[in-house]
Amino acid sequence: MNIPNRPKRxxxxxxxPERTQVEMRFLALDQxxxxxxxARIVWQxxxxxxxxxxxxxxxxxxxxxxxxxxxxxxxxxxxxMATIDSISSARELARRTTTDIPYMWLCGGVSVNHHTxxxxxxxxxxxxxxxxxxxxxxxxxxxxxxxxxxxxxGMRVRxxxxxxxxxxxxxxxELHQQAKQHVESxxxxxxxxxxxxxxxxxxxxxxxxxxxxxxxxIGEALRQVExxxxxxxxxxxxxxxKARCSTTDPDARKMKMADGGFRPAYNFQLTTEGKSRMVxxxxxxxxxxxxxxxxPRYQQVQETYSVTPGKLLVDSAFAIKEDVTEVERSGTxxxxxxxxxxxxxxxxxxxxxxxxxxxxEFANFRQRMSRADYQAIYKQRPSIAEFPNAEFRNRxxxxxxxxGLERVKSVALLLANAFNLMRMWDLRSRATV
Length: 433
Description:
Blueprint: H1 38-47, H2 52-55, H3 72-84, H4 90-99, H5 101-107, H6 114-122, H7 125-141, E1 149-158, E2 166-168, H8 169-191, H9 198-234, E3 244-246, E4 253-256, E5 262-273, E6 279-285, H10 294-305, E7 311-313, H11 321-329, E8 333-335, H12 341-346, H13 360-368, H14 372-378, H15 381-385, H16 387-394, H17 405-432
Parallel strand pairs: 1-7, 7-8
Antiparallel strand pairs: 1-5, 2-3, 4-5, 5-6
């Protein structure tokens, strides 16, 4: 339809964007962040923690020379916020501190770099574990955590290493010798620094440091492959020569993943409390099997919190005779399916009847799991034990950003603390409604 006297586009006055105009705005960071933004909740939580363990490492004090350290509250707050936002890269987190208002607000004008962030996450496993225990203890005192029911499960996470990095002992010995020779040649080359420019010296020092780290990794892989060789020989299966270790991450092991493939990975062991769904204990192993993990994790909870849980929900991979017997003798009922239950039924055997070699505790466990009420209790296991697994995946826990068992555990503990923070926020919000 034609409209008479309709103005043309060039004749219409509109406000158009101007992005090159320099302006001066007087705004504080605090004014740029919403009052209910979760960055404020993260900071409030961090300020409530006992950080003396972190502050004890600082050597710079008033009246003495030295550069000021970055307050650990900032680094911890940044990593908690980043984990909640599914950011696992220290470089990406460092970039966010210069572009995103929530991260700029947490920094409060303090600049951070990715090296500092990476080291903080990797080297503070002891503090992260204390932080986890203190948080759960506080929730116990408020009545949110009761330890009436626990769930435990394992989760395999891809290591920061490729399958092609695994080598057998002869190859590792050859690579180790080559790496040592390379380090020695670089050391001899760096001795004559009289004619080197400063940037050339730094470059050569960096090359030498990288070569030494590679030599150390290969040496550790060689040590571990020898230990694996001995273990396999003790089993008398004759495959000790097949033992392999990674030159990239000697602590990593090839494990069967959820999709059925085999890849370098670590095994996260997570214990979850049933009422609050909070993670109460974390451990990391490089064993591809969950067998034998139940009793140690149960003892960890008992010793840490001085409690005896009522029930412990696990899948059949954990419910081996020795572990079930030990846990039951401590006063906790194990609730699980019977190992190879379906195979036993196919061969006409009752999985709930006592078998030769069963302890009294394991026989009682078999009989108890034949009851409908305990089978109904077992159906709660996925919502308790597997809940943090799913949340870890949602937070980007698909491949680890660090190498080595201790550093991987530190990352796992940080993930658990971020998960627990969100659970605390949700539980307390519901309680105030």
